Each structure stands twice: as structure tokens, then as C-alpha cells.
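Q: What would this chain look like folded?
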Amino acid sequence: MRLYGNGGAALPQPNATPRPTDLTENAIQVAGESDGRFDASDALVFFGQGPQVVRYDSVSRRFTHQINPYSDTTFYFLTIGSTSGLRIADRPAGSLGAIPTVTTFDDYQFHEQDLLKLPAVRSGREWLGEYLTTDTTKVVPFDVPGIVANTPVRLTASVVAGATVPTQFRLQLNDQLVGTMPLTSISGYEYDYQGIARTDTFLAKLTTTNSPLRLSITFRKNGLYSAQGYLNYLSAQVWRELRQYDKPTWIRRLLAGQYAVKQATTNLRVWDITNPLVPISQGYTLSSAQEAGWVASRSGDYYLFTDSQILSSVALVTVSNQDLHSQDTPDLLIVSPVAWLDQAERLAKFRREHDRLSVLVVTTQQVYNEFGSGQADPTAIRDMARYFYQKQPAKLRYLLLFGDATYDYRNIAGQISAAQLANMVPVYESRESLHPVLSYSSDDYFGFMDASEGEWPETSTGDYLLDIGLGRLPVKSVDEARTVVDKLIRYSSDASLIGDWQTRVMLVADDGDYNIHQQDADLMARNIEKISPAYRPERIFLDDYPQENTSAGQKAPVVNQLINQAVTDGRLIINYSGHGAL
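A: My prediction, written as C-alpha cells:
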């Protein structure tokens, strides 16, 4: 038996950030494998990392957490064969001596529920938690037995408010006020921020060792009934005793030294999970005072548990063998869910025969398995494209995403079925999730191949250039997929359609917004003229034509006529930059 997986964290966006190039083998324990059979009493035990990641900043000495925005499940891959796999090694307790003994640890817990989005901004990757407009107070208990008396506790609250008057949140610990969080007002303009976010950290001193700690957050509307308030998350960082508890305990950042775990029993198991993919079974010496002691030569993370606390996997499914890494770099890479695979293959066959392109068709699940450790992470698609791009420079020219997309990666809103979600190809969503204009979705992310790209800051520093051509066929059914492929084949193969229209590109730009739309369209036209002079861009700017004020707003009848005529006569591309309305 051999187990593979890269944990539950989202893939890093920056191309320069190291990541596994393939699935990583994990160290495991297998009870009862010596007889070559896996019986009912046998077990495979490993350290599985969830999609909620906790990190430590050694400078500020603070913990933070990050929920995976793309998946609520972690996946591992089990193979069975004749080759010996990686096993968890044992480490002895070491010689206990007269050196200072570590008996406490700095614990971190958080409460964050992704439940909803601002009604006016159904975009962006961030989700909010409890709605505090109706029930204005939320009480969250933190189960932290073994609190060390008279030690500081670090509390963090993250909230969002949407109101045209200033509002306030109040944070209490065990019914005592810890701090207030004033939030400024929003303008109420439909194209401005619909909410204001704020995250504050407060230091308090615990006067009791009772557990649970009761954190409560209260939203004060300042007299505005329609004021909107939301909890994003609450967290607590508190000192606790090293002790065998009735729940598994993840002990982070223990400094090198001698440790003593109180109230220990003979069934206690200790794993060094400093490298969570390759844990080490830590031995200990159990004293007559029921203290489990061992010596560590370096700092690290430990996991304390018993056999009765081991969890079972959620589900087991059979996965076919695959090896995308061994494939040659194609000219055209097509990513499709299995549901539309026949039509994707039909289009690929046509491109091979008609356009003499080498084409590789892969399924979304194959990409996730090999480049995302099973998770439907958009970066897995980008990483796969970049793998082929680097494997044979200048060979990969096109990436086609064959399927519709959604901003709701985990179907939190429950507006689509599980089957529909499985038949989608994810789109990149911005971090900005509170502004209806600055929040966006884009496929451009999949075309950033340079080492300095990928992070995509939502500022002018993120104005990257695409290194490959991108396209998406947003099909939602087999019939739609067949129809779109029929059209593409017809456009490319029907001789009667060949004409002057195939060299003409119409770029239409709205006015207003300090001419940004016209500037963008003009830049696009100048790039076409410089890079591909065979194509003729037509600039249609609203400012060049008379406009009329109507009950439905401003209209430009001549521009409408030009667009309609262009559709009738044919254009290779008609692109519009600006705003629109019915």
C-alpha cells in the first residue's frame, strides 16, 4: 500500500512559489500488513490535512488561518502493488534530564462559516458568515480546556457592514467588553462599495480558566433599520497546558527542549507532524505521575491522539490510472468535463485534420487529480498549461476551456446541482468581493506563464500580458456542446463563408469614465495594427456619433445601426468595451 496527496490548502497563485510537480507520497502506518492481506481488523493510518490551513508568523508570533475557497474536501490516492511504500518511522523518547520542561503551548482556534454573499455583489471568491441584521448578536463558544491562568489571549474579529450611516461592532469575552470596531458608511450608490470590511485584533487577560470561552459579537445599527451587518470570522489564540485531552490536539510551534504531557495514559499516541506528509511516531517515557515526556532537538508541530479518536475517510472511489505529465506538449490544449468529452474530441479531431494542430484533450478531473491533488482548484488548470508551456517552449499556443463556469465553487448557495457543478470548468474570481465593478471573473489567469506572474494583484501592477491564446465555450448541455462544435466546424470548413469579413475587427467603445473604454479599445486596435497588420480594426467610439436622451437613458442610434450592419455583413470579431443596459 502506498498513499499520495498534497494536503488541503489551495494552490499558490504566484508562478514562482514552489509547489509539488506531481502527487507526493505520504508516510503511513499499516497495521496487519505482514501477512500480505488486508483483513477486517487491519488499518491504514495517516495524517490527513483538511482544507482549512493555519499558518504562523514568527515575527508577530501570531497564527492566522485560511479556508480553501475552492474545496471543502481533501483527497488522497491509494495504490496497491508489489513495491514497498513510505512508512512512518519511530523516534525514541530520548534521555530526560535536568533541563527546563515545556508544559504549555500556544493554541489557536477559529470560527468561520462561508454562508452568503452581499446581495448586490454576487461575485468574487470571498464569502461571509452569519447575518447580524436580524439577530444582532452572535455568541461563539471556544472549547479550550486547560487554559493557563493569568495569561494573555489574542482575539481577532473580522466583520462587514453595509449602511449609509456609521455603524459599530462590539466584541465581548465572557460577557466583558474587549473592544469596539467602528465602521464608516457606504455611499449607497449602486456602483460603489456595498460593504466595508474591518479586521481587528484585541489583547485581553484571562482571569478564569473555565472553558469554553464565550466570544460574542454585536452589531449596532446607529438607528438605521436597513443597516446590514455580517460576521466574517472570530479567532482566539490562548495558552493551554500540555495535556492529554478527550479530543485530538494539534500542538503547533513547540520550541526545542524537553516536553511533559500531563494526565497521559498508555494509549496516548504522539506524532511529530512538522512535515505533515511524513509524520514521525514520537516515543515517550510515561512517569508514575502520568506525564509523557520526550526530548526534541528542534522546534516542531505535534499531534496527540488515541486510537479511538482516529477518523475514517468520507468516501472511497475508484480512480483510473493516468499520466498527463508524460504527454507531449500540444499546440491546442482542451480542458473538458467528462459530460462534454465526445464533443471536445470531435472538435479536436477537426483541428488536427483541418488546421494541422496537435491537440490534447484532458478532463477536468484528470487535471485536478494530477495537478491539484484531487481538488477543483482553478490554479491546477493554470499549472498544467504552464507545465506544457515550459516543457516545450513556444509550442503551446491555445487553451480552450470547454464548459460553463460559476462563482460559487463549492455550491454554497445551493443554486446548482452537484452534477451541474461537476460539468463546469472553473473561472478565476477576484479577491475583491464587496464592489460590484471592481469584483470580476476572468479566464486571463490561465494564460499567465511567466515566472514573475500569477499573483495577479488587483492594481495596475497586475496588468500582465497573456502568453497563450485563451477561449471558453460556456456550454451547459450535450446539445449546446454539439451545436457550438457544429458552428465552429462550419465556419472553418464551409467555403461559401470565406470572405473579406474574416479580416475585419470591430472595436466598439462607450464614452464616460474618463475615456478609459475608448483608450482601451484604441490600445487594442493599435496592437492589432502593429502585431497582425493583415487584420483591419474599425474603431466605433460613441463620442464620435450623435446621442439622444430618452426615457430609457442615452442612446446612440447610428452606433446601433453600425453594429447591426456589421453582424449582417460579418466580422471576425465584434468587441464592446463599456457599460450596457437593456
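The mean pLDDT is 95.
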